[in-house]
């Protein structure tokens, strides 16, 4: 048998959310936190169960945000659904921006590595040709300038 506390939301998190809504001087009893904990857990189970049923009918194994929004609407919680759709849109937009930034950073790192590898190869070639070791590298307009100290 599953321990009841394992299926419930953490009471500390529930209490913290309740405190955010209430005035700073408000006191929340343990029983109030427990009641809200049970209600919130039941609500989440109700909505995710509906979304899971939809996924099962569509032969999918993963419930996504769109499924949750659909479940909220189909259960009559349109106000929640509309708010979550807006949040989900903003979240996905932020994730796309973050992914694009990561791609740009990775691309710059690859360019830096390519430049380093090119410079390293050039130094090895110069050293094997018994010429002085370069003391400075500069790239001007995509042209590599190698400076030797005299």
TrEMBL record:
GO molecular function: DNA-binding transcription activator activity, RNA polymerase II-specific; protein heterodimerization activity; RNA polymerase II cis-regulatory region sequence-specific DNA binding
Broad class of where this protein is predominantly found: nucleus
Listed GO CC annotations: CCAAT-binding factor complex
Residues of the Transcription factor CBF/NF-Y/archaeal histone domain: 8-72
Sorted UniProt keywords: Abscisic acid signaling pathway, Activator, Coiled coil, DNA-binding, Nucleus, Transcription, Transcription regulation
Top-level lineage group: Eukaryota
Pfam families: CBFD_NFYB_HMF (PF00808)
Gene3D superfamilies: Histone, subunit A (1.10.20.10)
CDD domains: HFD_NFYB
UniProt-listed GO biological process terms: abscisic acid-activated signaling pathway
Coiled-coil boundaries: 77-104
Location within or outside the cell: Nucleus
Keyword field contains Repeat: no
Similarity remark: Belongs to the NFYB/HAP3 subunit family.
UniProt-recorded name of the protein: Transcription factor CBF/NF-Y/archaeal histone domain-containing protein
Organism the protein comes from: Hevea brasiliensis
């Amino acid at each position: 048998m599953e321990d009841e506390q394992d299926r419930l939301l953490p009471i500390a998190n529930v209490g913290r959310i309740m405190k955010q809504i209430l005035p700073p001087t408000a006191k929340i009893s343990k029983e109030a936190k427990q009641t809200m904990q049970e209600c919130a857990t039941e609500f989440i189970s109700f909505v995710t169960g509906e979304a899971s049923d939809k996924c099962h009918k569509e032969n999918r194994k993963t419930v996504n945000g769109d499924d949750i929004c659909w479940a909220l609407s189909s259960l009559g919680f349109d106000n929640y659904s509309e708010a979550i759709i807006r949040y989900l849109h903003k979240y996905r937009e932020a994730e796309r921006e973050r992914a694009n930034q990561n791609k740009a950073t990775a691309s710059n790192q690859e360019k830096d590595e390519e430049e380093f590898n090119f410079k390293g190869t050039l130094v090895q070639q110069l050293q094997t040709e018994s010429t002085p070791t370069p003391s400075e590298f500069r790239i001007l307009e995509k042209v590599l300038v190698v400076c030797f100290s005299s």
